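Re: that chain you flagged

S.,

Sorry for the slow reply, it's been a week of failed gels. I finally had a moment to sit down with the sequence you sent. For the record, here it is as I used it:
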Amino acid sequence: MKNNCGTRCGAVFYHALPYPYASICILELISSIVLLVMLTRSRNLLDEDATTTPITTPGETTLTTTSRKSITTTTPTSSEIIVKVIIAYSIALAGSIIPVFTGIILFFSIFTCCVCLRKNECRRPFLRFVSLNCNCPCYIPRPKLRFAIRIGFHLFCIALRVVGIIMFRILSDEAPEGRSILQILLFVTAVCLIFPFLTILLDVYHYRVWWAYQPIIDIPPDIARKAFSKKHKRFIPYVLTERFRTDAIGNRKCKYEDACQKRQLDHVVIFHSSKHQPQPRWSEEYSIYIGFHRTKPEAAYSIAKSDFAPSSKGMLGPGAYFARSTDATLSKIGKSDQTGAWFVAEISMGKVFMVNEHSIRKYPNNKRFDANLERFVRNGDWSTEYDTCYFKHHTESKDEFCIKDPANQILRWVVVIEEPYDKKLDLYGLANELDRGSFSCC
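Prediction finished late last night. Pasting the structure tokens below so you have them in one place:
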């Protein structure tokens, strides 16, 4: 897939993401200042009205010169309304406190901003700060969790602003003398609702670049135009895989390590793709098994848009071959030229023919070697009665298996295109986005 105009425009927009984030922060700051000015004016109006109009508290009586009758009123005092207005303003402001704080820093550091954007060693930390996408250990720098945290935070901010709008609406009815100012407060707060929604849209785009990932590789146009197979779950950027994870709190490996029970493909790719553990060696209790298959990037893209095609030959006969980890696929004989991409797939094993290494490989002094069994396996004669041939190696990590019917036995898969074959990593700057910068949290 060649870099067309749309791809380059997408890369430019992705690199420019911090700027709309920063613009929203500045607009939030301006709107908060407007709210503060309106709050001050509404308080002054209510204070003036309190000095010229006799107000009685609930249950209190007022005597006039023309009539000595007792009159009971339940109208709130101006001081009570002022307190409620301040509470409503505080709630509305709490919904934008983070972007307002960021906007204040941006406003008072224009010169520093320009310097940071020009210096490479400062640019990434500054843009992460503006985007609120820092790599602090307490803020896990991985797309799925980060996206969930940010969306939850923005929804909470929206809820606070809605509460503020409702309070301003109620107060405008309770205080007719300050209704015009209170309605302006209500209107400005309502308009400010657009800012968290815009931020959510930017977050969704940022998330989709990572989690609805589309690699950029050179493939024929006829393949590029095809729709993806229903079995294709997603591509995952290479930089999210286990090899790039460290022991840092924000980027730690799976806390369960080899005792992990999760078998979701995403989790396997990100946390357990290199080693054959924690998935146990196949046994009768595993009707669904996780398999790894390595191939060339162009072939991987073609498979993702169609299906696996069984090979015509192999140690276990014709079929589609899978190993128990990415390391095992590299160590397989005859696979050294099939590099650049790998699949992690859920496979329905069906009826399995288990074969031991010593029974079909001829070693010196190997008394268990069976020439007839070797021919039976290598010719694929097992496929007349079985769905899968599982090769049990004396080193467990090197186990592999062959399935005779990929179209029906492979249920779904996730694909990883390795660097440098995937051009999008460098074009979008994803290869270095999760690296730590000069500043420890950024």
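What I noticed first: The radius of gyration is 32 Å.

Talk soon,
D.
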